[in-house]
Amino acid sequence: MDLNFNSELKSKFSRLISTIKDYGSLCVAFSAGVDSTLLAFIVSNILEGAPHIVTVNSEFLSRYELEESKNLAQELGFEHKIIDISVMDNPDIIQNDTLRCKYCKFTVMMNIIEFAKSNGIDNILDGSNIDDLSDYRPGFEAASALGIKSPFIEAGISKEDIRELAKFLNLPNWDKPASACLASRIPYNSVITKDILEKVEKAEDFIRDLGYRGFRVRHYDKIARIELNADDIESFIKNHRVKVDLELRRLGYTSVCVDLKGYRLSGLNK
Question: Which pTM was predicted?
């Protein structure tokens, strides 16, 4: 593949290909984000046969993200497997302390591990990149402890590198904003319930249908705090303030506010 990139990115990409080829049989944990999409695309195009691309569906995954994973996998020709699980039965997860993501990731990855073993697969890959090493990522720690491979990290590839590669390969979601599970909208040490998850999901579906991307609805009991891209705040307030306020109050919030700092990646971690 002739890559029209600087020498550094070419070197990283070559290292990535070499790393993946050395793994043997594998499957990819697929969220439909740009990271796992690029990884799944590369794996599907450099290995003989069709690798398994696996999405784990739980109460923390929005229906929008689930359908997006199905549609994207079909568009790109992946052999896509969906594993349905429940995470709400685990008290360590729903108590929602600062290690929630670790407990959840362990549960998710153990289900993929069981799938891999039953299909004779040697390795499981995820889309973690070197930028994840600088944030609070207890889920990454859990995955590493279980032996999940992160080839982007091994090759020294960043989020910016991933987007550049995905754009070059014409992946349809190369510029997709970062996403996270529904539980990430709920502050640590606030117990997670299905009702809260459904309320947040419906609120975000409503705002997404207005045409916005890369936003969050943070849940604080009866208060909804909306984080938008900074460039979207003015138009959002001008054009949609009333209808969003009415809809979120209908869902049960008594106060709806817009965070003037805008959306911040890993906002609750800060």
Answer: 0.92
CATH code linked to domain 7-168 = 3.40.50.620
Per-residue pLDDT of the chain (270 residues; tens, 9 = 90+): 556 667 899 999 999 999 999 888 899 999 999 999 999 999 998 876 778 999 999 999 999 999 999 999 999 999 999 999 999 999 999 999 999 999 999 999 999 999 999 999 999 999 999 998 887 778 888 888 899 999 999 999 999 999 999 999 999 999 999 889 999 999 999 999 999 999 999 999 999 999 999 999 999 999 999 999 999 999 999 999 999 999 999 999 999 999 999 998 755 555
**What is the C-alpha to C-alpha distance for residues 110 and 222, in angstroms, rounded to an integer?**
35
Structure-token match 């299909």, residue found: 119
Burial of 19: CB neighbours in 10 Å, binned 0-12, 13-18, 19+:
middle
- Please determine whether the domains at 7-168 and 193-258 fall in the same fold group of CATH: no
* Contact predicate 142/107, CB 8 Å: no
Record: fold of 193-258? GMP Synthetase; Chain A, domain 3 (3.30.300)
